[in-house]
Backbone:
């Protein structure tokens, strides 16, 4: 080179694009569905749930589940239709195979299912397997509790300890065994679209239901009820008050208290996914001081946007020299830390009422005026 040359360099933080979280992943049966539109064990992307209902047939679990979802919202759905098993064990095997199809759905359909369920097919074996898939997808699983009584539901809840799942008991009054799960999935998608992933499904009116399958005692101002007992065990239940039917409960099945709330788990998942995807530009670039600074500022900018939007209470990103040795950096490996405080639901509100005579202190002056 003999002369002057300008190199155009790109430095500074990059915008991290928000991803869609309101994508349902559902597995079920539909024996009458046309194979061309709903291939057996195939992944189908549904963008119009009412249109899908018109062609999927009337038998199996999927028609009823889609109808329940459509009562609440009109989300994007990744659907996997599985066969009908000869018995419960065979059905579990078919359903589990279908659940595994969701793991690679994003590669085929360009959307990742995050709101997960197999309404009416979620036996204990199916639920246990689905929990592992939910972890891989960074999704959230809604499943039905088993049992005819509160005591039996509490016992069943002890089988699960993963943070990516929520148990719902009992069912809405319906001929469809998975109605409460399907409607929870539809409601979750609607809340994501209207409010955000930082709001739980609890205490939001559910449309299309007329009753609750089991009696669940409930009082807004009492802890001595079935609903309070179920919630304390990490079970979301169903109640009716304030002129409507609602899910009542915010808690996951997590055995780690930091991830007790549905909103915090989904916040953690969304932040991790969006930051990872938003930093793809930095991979394999020369690891300079400027690159690390740009990476930190990129993360901080996104975290600040969450705080501004009231989806986080607070968050920050930093570089810890103790985690980044000379040898590690020379080997192309860097570690950047960030933390956050998620928005917890106002699960309990205590009001202190006091009786006092102090407002009589200026009684005479009030009369005089």
Residues:
């Amino acid at each position: 080179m003999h002369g002057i040359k300008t190199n155009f360099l790109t430095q500074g933080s990059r915008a991290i694009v928000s991803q869609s979280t309101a994508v349902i992943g559902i597995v079920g049966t539909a024996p009458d569905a046309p194979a061309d539109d709903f291939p057996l064990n195939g992944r189908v992307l549904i963008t119009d749930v009412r249109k899908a209902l018109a062609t999927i047939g009337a038998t199996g679990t999927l028609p009823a589940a889609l109808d329940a979802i459509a009562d609440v919202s009109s989300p994007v759905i990744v659907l996997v239709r599985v066969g009908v098993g000869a018995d419960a064990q065979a059905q579990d095997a078919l359903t589990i195979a279908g659940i595994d199809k969701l793991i690679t759905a994003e590669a085929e359909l360009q959307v990742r299912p995050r709101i997960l369920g197999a309404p009416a097919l979620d036996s204990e074996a199916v639920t246990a397997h689905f929990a592992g898939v939910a972890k891989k997808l960074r999704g959230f699983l809604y499943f039905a509790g088993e049992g005819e009584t509160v005591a039996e539901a509490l016992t069943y809840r002890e089988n699960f300890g993963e943070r990516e799942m929520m148990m719902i008991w009992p069912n809405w009054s319906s001929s469809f065994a998975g109605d409460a799960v399907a409607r929870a999935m539809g409601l979750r998608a609607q809340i994501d679209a209207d409010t955000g992933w930082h709001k739980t499904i609890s205490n939001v009116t559910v449309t299309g239901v007329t009753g609750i399958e089991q009696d669940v005692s409930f009082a807004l101002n009492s802890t001595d009820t079935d609903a309070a007992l179920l919630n304390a065990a990490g079970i979301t239940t169903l109640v009716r008050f304030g002129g409507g039917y609602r899910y009542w409960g915010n808690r996951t099945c997590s055995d780690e208290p930091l991830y007790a709330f549905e909103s915090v788990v989904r916040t953690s998942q969304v932040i991790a996914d969006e930051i990872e995807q938003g930093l793809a530009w930095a991979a394999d670039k020369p690891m300079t001081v400027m690159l690390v600074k740009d990476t930190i500022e990129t993360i901080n900018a996104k975290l600040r946007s969450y705080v501004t939007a009231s989806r986080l209470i607070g968050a920050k990103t930093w570089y810890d020299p103790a985690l980044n040795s000379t040898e590690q950096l020379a080997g192309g490996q860097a570690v950047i830390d960030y933390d956050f405080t998620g928005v917890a639901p106002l699960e309990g509100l205590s009001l202190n009422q006091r009786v006092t005579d102090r407002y009589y202190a200026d009684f005479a002056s009030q009369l005089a005026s």
Q: What stands out?
A: Residues 289-308 form the longest helix (20 residues). The CA atoms of residues 44 and 79 lie 5 Å apart.
